[in-house]
Amino acid sequence: MGYYNEDNRFVIAVYVDNKYGVLSRVTSMFTRRGFNIDALTVGVTESPEYSRITITMSGDGYAKAQMLNQLRKLYNVKKVEVLDETTALERELMLIKIKNDQTHNQTILSAVDIFHAEIVDYSVDALCIEVTGPSSKIDAFIEFIKPCGIIEMCRTGVVALQKGGGSMLDMPDVN
């Protein structure tokens, strides 16, 4: 079982002015309307005057339409798109700390190999592993490694881009 409801999950990409308070206005809009954000990532774009917010949320068609309409009304929002899961590249990063227990060493090393992960910190009592890829891969790694004893973990949330040579800013608003 995944951490997202895949049937109702969608990813929204939002280009905004890279200014103080813009992220707060965007996220408070979700709160005011009673919608939950499953994951949120933000970073400066190829143009320093803009940031890109990637929002992962679950909801029905009404929720999606409502959020898109409301986001487009915000002053500092320049572009809003729902990314199509069949034509977008999605990645996530997770750091996970696992008990360093001799009885699970082979399982841990197998997991690191199978999932193309990397051990980024090693101590007598714990290992920290970095895993990147689609959310489904991260979910599968967690399920595989659970019996080894997870101490703590941190996930970044999804970052996503449409495939091909175009830019989100070049695309017409269709969603």
CATH superfamily of the largest domain: ACT domain
Number of helices: 4
What's the Cα radius of gyration? 19 Å
Distance between the termini: 29 Å
Q: Just give the CATH class of the largest domain.
A: Alpha Beta
* Tally of strands: 9
Question: For the report, how would you describe the main beta sheet?
Answer: 5 strands, antiparallel
Overall geometry: elongated
- CATH topology (fold) name of the largest domain: Alpha-Beta Plaits
Task: Please give the share of residues in helix.
Answer: 25-40%
Model regions low in confidence, pLDDT < 50 over at least 5 residues: 1-5
Mean pLDDT: 89
- What is the string of helix and strand elements? EHEEHEEHEEHEE
Structural class: alpha+beta
How would you characterize the overall build of this protein?
- There is one protein chain.
- With 175 residues, the protein is an alpha+beta fold.
- It has helices at 22-32, 61-73, 105-114, 135-145; strands at residues 9-17, 39-44, 50-58, 77-83, 88-99, 118-122, 126-133, 150-155, 159-162.
- The protein folds into 2 domains: 9-83, 2-Layer Sandwich (Alpha-Beta Plaits), CATH 3.30.70.260; 89-159, Alpha-Beta Plaits (2-Layer Sandwich), CATH 3.30.70.1150.
- The longest helix is centred in the middle third of the chain and has 13 residues, at 61-73.
- It is elongated, with a radius of gyration of 19 Å.
- Residues 1-5 have low confidence and may be disordered.
